[in-house]
Each structure stands twice: as C-alpha cells, then as structure tokens.
Amino acid sequence: MKRIVPLFIALLLVSVSFAQLERLSSIPEIDDFEPSFQPGAWVEYEVFDSEKEETSQMKFSVLSKEECEDGDCFWFEFKVTEADGEWQILKLKGADPREKESLYSMIVQKKGEKPQQLDFMLPRNMPTLQQEAEEEIEEDEEVELDYTTEENVEIKVKAGTFNTTHIVMKEEKGTSDIWISEEVPMFGMVRAERGEEGYVELINYGDKGAKSEIQGKTERIEIPNLQQLMQQGQEDQ
C-alpha cells in the first residue's frame, strides 16, 4: 500500500491548502482596488489560531506568467509552515488562484514526500467538479456582503507601518476586520482578525525574487480508479 498512502495524503493536503488560501481571498471587492499578480512578487504572513494556541506561517508567491488557452495565466505557489516545522506546498497554474475553474495544473508536496501533480482533481478536467464550481460561483454572486470601509487608517504590523483601508465585515459567526493596502502585492492584505478565532498578519513581502520551493522531481498522477488502487495494493503487499 506504499503508493496509495502518499496519494491520499496529497488529496488531504489539497483540501487543507485551499482552506488556508481562502484566508487571502476573503476580501470583498472594493472600488479602485484590484488584486495584482506581478511575477516575482511574494507575501508572507503569520497566522495565529486562538483555539489551538498555535502560530504558523503562510507564504504566497507569483512565480511566472505565461499564455494559456483562455488568456494570461500564472504559476502561483502557496506554502504553509506549521508550528512544529512541518510544511506543505500547493503550486497552481491559472488565471486566479481563488477561482478553481480557472486552474490548469496543480502540484502538491508535503515535507518528506515527493511532489505530485494532481491535474485530474481540477474542475476543468472533471465535468462534475466543473459544474459544482460554476454552481458555487452563482451562489457567491447571490450573496450580498455586509461590510463597511474606512479610508486612511494607519496600522503597524511586523512588516512595517501602512496606510490602509479598514474593512469591517459582518458574518454569521461574528465580525471580521481586514486592513488592505495597495503597497502589498497580490491581495493587499496587511492584517485580518475574526473575532476571538485569531489573526493573520503580514510579516514580510517583496515585488521580486519569488522562487519555487518545491523539492525533487514531480510525479504526475493520473485519474485513479478502484481497479488501479486494488492492483497497486496487491503489488505492494
């Protein structure tokens, strides 16, 4: 079962990574502010989980830009380093990492494991997932966000002092505060807080120098089916 276990780990990693990625993309659309995906740019955040009383770090990079069949797309990389030093990387090729239906390729790696390319998991390669992604988009468009904004709010974080737009979002679980600045690449987030759950704070950033942290040769995984998994299991026993 040696080959099956890493695949299941990779699938779990994808789910966890996308959940973390939502922290960076939960900002409502603000007039005169658009996410900027400049090749070479990167941002690094400290994430504090109040419930677990643990601090982790996440880094988001734009590695390169190229032409895809639907227009311009980028190679993005998202790395989460846990408090115990364990890390996981999600590398994506697409127009926008927040839009799963726009993605062409996906590579994942967990510390101590080989990187695996799991393109079969993307909506454009699985009609059922594509339909679900489109339905999610329609639902998101119907949801009206309840938020207020305040301009020119100065905030000091580990990465420096920024002149920001302060967004206060009212949600079912409580109130979230987000501070954004055009000085910060990608989504512009300087700090975010959600009640007593914890916070995300910018600790470093740059507009050039982003490099992939994937280690080793990537193994491409094709769409697995039950028969293939059973055969692999018999071979590994």
Describe the structure.
Helices cover 19% and strands 42% of the residues. With 237 residues, it is of the alpha+beta class. It has a single domain, classed as outer membrane lipoprotein receptor (LolB), chain A. The protein has a 12-stranded mixed sheet with strand order 7-8-9-10-11-1-2-3-4-5-6-12, with helices on one face.
Indicate the overall shape. Answer: globular
Taking the sheet with the most strands, its summary is: 12 strands, mixed
Number of domain modules: 1
Helix-residue proportion = 10-25%
The Rg value, from CA coordinates, equals 19 Å
Proportion of beta-strand residues: 35-45%
Task: Describe, in short, the structure shown.
This protein is α+β, with helices and mostly antiparallel strands and 237 residues long. 19% of the residues lie in helices and 42% in strands.
List keywords for this structure.
alpha+beta; 12 strands; disordered N terminus; outer membrane lipoprotein receptor (LolB), chain A; 12-stranded mixed β-sheet
